[in-house]
C-alpha cells in the first residue's frame, strides 16, 4: 500500500488491516499514519510493528498510542526508541509499560525521561532497571525517584551508582534504602556520603555496612555518626576500624561501645584511644 492509499483509509478500515499487512508497510507509509489511525490500531496491529517502523514514528504519533496498545509493543521496539520519542511519552503511557519493556529501554532514551516520567514509574518497573540503565540516569532523575521505587531497585542497579548520583539522594531517599541495597553500595559511594545522609541512616542500615565500606569512611564521616549508629556497628566492623578513625570518635560515641564491641578492639586500637576516650 502507498502513503496516499493508507491516508485514504477510514479509522474503521485501518483497524481492519491484518497484522501481516501492517508489518509489510514501508517506514514512509508508517510515518504518514494520522494520529487518529494510531489511536485506531488494535493491540495485535501495534504488536506487529517492526523496530524500523517504530523508529519512523513521529513524537505526535508516539503520544497518540493508547496505553494498552503501547504495552503490547515488542520489547525490541524500546531498545531502539529515540530520545525524542521517549520524551514524548505521557506519564500514563510510561506507567503502562511492562517491566520487560522498561528493562529493554535504550540507556540514552532512559536518560532523556523527564522527572515527571521517572515519578510515573511503578515499583515493579523500577525494580526492572538494569545496572547500565541506572548508571545512565542523571542526578535530577535520581532525585525524582519516589522512596518506594528507590527501595525496589535491584542490588546490581544500586552497585552501579556513581558518587554524583548518590550525592543527589535526599535524606528520606537514603533512609528508604534496604539493608541489602546499603550492602551493595560501592565503597566510592559510601566514601562520598554527606554528613546529613549518614545521620539519616537507621541502625539496621549501619549494621549492614561491609568491612570495605567501613574502611572507606573518612574520619569526619565516622565522627558524624550518631551514637545509636556507632552502637549498631558489628564487632567485625569495630575490629577493622583504623586507628585514625578510632581517634576521630567523640567521647560520646566511645561511651556507647557495647562490651562485645570493646572486646573486638585490637591492642593497636586500644593504644590509639585517648585518655578522654578511655574514661568515657
Briefly say what this structure is:
The protein is mostly helical and 280 residues long. Helices cover 68% and strands 0% of the residues.
Report on this structure.
The protein is mainly α and 280 residues long. The chain contains 35 helices and no strands. It has helices at residues 3-7, 11-15, 19-24, 27-30, 35-40, 43-48, 51-56, 59-64, 67-70, 75-79, 83-88, 91-96, 99-104, 107-110, 115-119, 123-127, 131-136, 139-144, 147-150, 155-159, 163-167, 171-176, 179-184, 187-191, 195-200, 203-207, 211-216, 219-224, 227-232, 235-240, 243-248, 251-255, 259-264, 267-272, 275-279. The radius of gyration is 26 Å and the shape is rod-shaped. 39% of the residues are buried. The mean pLDDT is 92.
Amount of beta strand: under 5%
- Terminal residue distance: 86 Å
Number of strands: 0
Largest sheet features: none
> Approximately how much helix is present in the residues?
55-70%
Structural class: mainly alpha
- Low-pLDDT parts are none
Shape: rod-shaped
- Helical segment count: 35
Task: Please supply descriptive tags for the structure shown above.
280 residues, mainly alpha, 35 helices
Strand-helix topology:
Layout (H helix, E strand, L loop, with lengths): L2 H5 L3 H5 L3 H6 L2 H4 L4 H6 L2 H6 L2 H6 L2 H6 L2 H4 L4 H5 L3 H6 L2 H6 L2 H6 L2 H4 L4 H5 L3 H5 L3 H6 L2 H6 L2 H4 L4 H5 L3 H5 L3 H6 L2 H6 L2 H5 L3 H6 L2 H5 L3 H6 L2 H6 L2 H6 L2 H6 L2 H6 L2 H5 L3 H6 L2 H6 L2 H5 L1
